[in-house]
């Protein structure tokens, strides 16, 4: 449902807050990070890449169907740091303007043409300079023992520049990094804080979402002893108090999203991170989750969607994944069988229905809340900024 600022304000004043707390719901748009994989881990493969051939951020028709027909108000748009900041420039405030323009067109289409919200998603695992064997290749940002690594300061400069370019668009959400892993949590927090400080220094009040360590897994948030995300991530400080947590949660045996069988109970596995969110008065998005077309996955996907709807700590989600370049390939949960993606119109490799037909339409789409936020600045409070007294 779309409503104007004025009627939203009136409703907020007259009505008690509805129980539902999901303000933002939709899909990950994954394809902007495509085209760099190399079986021999050859550095530089697919860089800078050909827009529309090796990678592309969205298909406008896919975004139209998701937004107009399925009433989602959130798209998470993946891109690669090595395309935005070519390795010859280094990570920082100098962008490849041609690449940036393609990216901005996609973000503007989602936010201005369709009126939905967009998460900017540097799909880099807190690494920079070699995506040829992602998620493991590339130097960990800020690793002072690696002379080829970009620094924490450079990561801040990158985010300051990106924020300056989008600060006037209140529908843009800054997703600081996709799935950091295998790095010290102290360095993760230092990098994230440098980004937050640089963003706010530019005067951008946009909602920021920050990941944890260990692939930002919800089930493992409190695991890992001293390194556990639960010991670190609440240390992040945001002067605008418009910071939420970015969680990923897959439902198969090893939480990888690789397997067709859903076996994990989301309510049990998310209990720890939910208690941590409550303790620190933080809100969260689950920006990656998914399942295959089995009966068990239907049950468990309904389980995680209901869990998020029922726990006020959760304010948004994007399912993994739609995007124009998946073709018959599957973004998750199919044991390498190619059953298509959540992209409208995609087909499985065997010609059968895709995950769009078998998982999005009958399962996930049914849990898109009827009332979502369609106006105002993306925020932990829905459409307004509200500092604690
Ligand atoms: C910038 O992007 C364009 C378009 O993809 C590409 O042709 C060009 O080579 C890129 N420049 C650098 C320095 O990577
Ligand atoms: C899942 O989808 C694929 C591709 O359409 C199909 O071959 C398979 O039979 C489906 N599995 C179930 C359990 O429906």
TrEMBL record:
<keyword id="KW-0378">Hydrolase</keyword>
<dbReference type="InterPro" id="IPR017853">
    <property type="entry name" value="GH"/>
</dbReference>
<dbReference type="GO" id="GO:0008810">
    <property type="term" value="F:cellulase activity"/>
</dbReference>
<feature type="domain" description="Glycoside hydrolase family 5">
    <location>
        <begin position="46"/>
        <end position="323"/>
    </location>
</feature>
<dbReference type="GO" id="GO:0009251">
    <property type="term" value="P:glucan catabolic process"/>
</dbReference>
<dbReference type="InterPro" id="IPR018087">
    <property type="entry name" value="Glyco_hydro_5_CS"/>
</dbReference>
<keyword id="KW-0326">Glycosidase</keyword>
<dbReference type="Pfam" id="PF00150">
    <property type="entry name" value="Cellulase"/>
</dbReference>
<keyword id="KW-0732">Signal</keyword>
<comment type="similarity">
    <text>Belongs to the glycosyl hydrolase 5 (cellulase A) family.</text>
</comment>
<dbReference type="InterPro" id="IPR001547">
    <property type="entry name" value="Glyco_hydro_5"/>
</dbReference>
<protein>
    <recommendedName>
        <fullName>cellulase</fullName>
        <ecNumber>3.2.1.4</ecNumber>
    </recommendedName>
</protein>
<feature type="signal peptide">
    <location>
        <begin position="1"/>
        <end position="20"/>
    </location>
</feature>
């Amino acid at each position: 449902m779309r409503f104007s600022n004025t009627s939203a304000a009136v409703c907020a004043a007259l009505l008690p807050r509805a129980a539902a707390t999901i303000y933002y719901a939709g899909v990950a748009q994954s394809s902007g990070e495509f085209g760099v994989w190399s079986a021999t881990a050859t550095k530089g493969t697919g860089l800078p890449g050909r827009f529309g051939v090796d990678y592309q951020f969205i298909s406008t028709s896919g975004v139209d169907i998701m937004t107009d027909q399925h009433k989602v108000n959130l798209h998470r748009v993946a891109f690669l740091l090595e395309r935005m900041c070519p390795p010859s420039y280094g990570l920082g405030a100098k962008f490849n303007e041609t690449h940036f323009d393609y990216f901005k067109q996609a973000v503007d289409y989602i936010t201005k043409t369709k009126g939905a919200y967009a998460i900017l998603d540097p799909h880099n695992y807190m690494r920079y300079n070699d995506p040829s064997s992602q998620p493991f290749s590339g130097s960990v940002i800020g690793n002072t023992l690696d002379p080829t690594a970009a620094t924490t300061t450079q990561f801040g400069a990158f985010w300051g520049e990106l924020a300056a370019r989008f600060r006037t668009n209140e529908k843009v959400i800054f997703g600081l990094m996709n799935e950091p892993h295998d790095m010290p949590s102290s360095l993760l927090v230092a990098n994230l804080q440098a980004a937050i400080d640089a963003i706010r220094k530019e005067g951008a009040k946009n909602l920021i979402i920050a990941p944890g360590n260990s692939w930002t897994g919800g089930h493992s948030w409190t695991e890992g002893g001293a390194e556990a995300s639960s010991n670190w991530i609440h240390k992040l400080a945001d002067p605008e108090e418009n910071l939420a947590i970015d969680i990923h949660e897959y439902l198969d045996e090893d939480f990888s999203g690789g397997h067709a069988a859903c076996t994990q109970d989301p309510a049990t596995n998310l209990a720890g991170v939910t208690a941590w969110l409550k303790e620190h008065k933080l809100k969260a998005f689950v920006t990656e989750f998914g399942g295959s077309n089995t009966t068990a996955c239907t049950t468990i996907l309904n389980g995680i969607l209901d869990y998020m709807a029922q726990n006020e700590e959760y304010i948004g989600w994007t399912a993994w994944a739609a995007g124009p370049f998946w073709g018959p390939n599957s973004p998750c949960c199919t044991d390498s069988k190619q059953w298509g993606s959540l992209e409208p119109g995609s087909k499985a490799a065997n010609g059968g229905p895709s995950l769009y037909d078998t998982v999005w339409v009958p399962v996930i789409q049914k849990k898109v809340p009827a009332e979502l936020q369609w106006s105002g600045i993306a925020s932990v409070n829905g459409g307004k900024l509200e500092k604690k007294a």
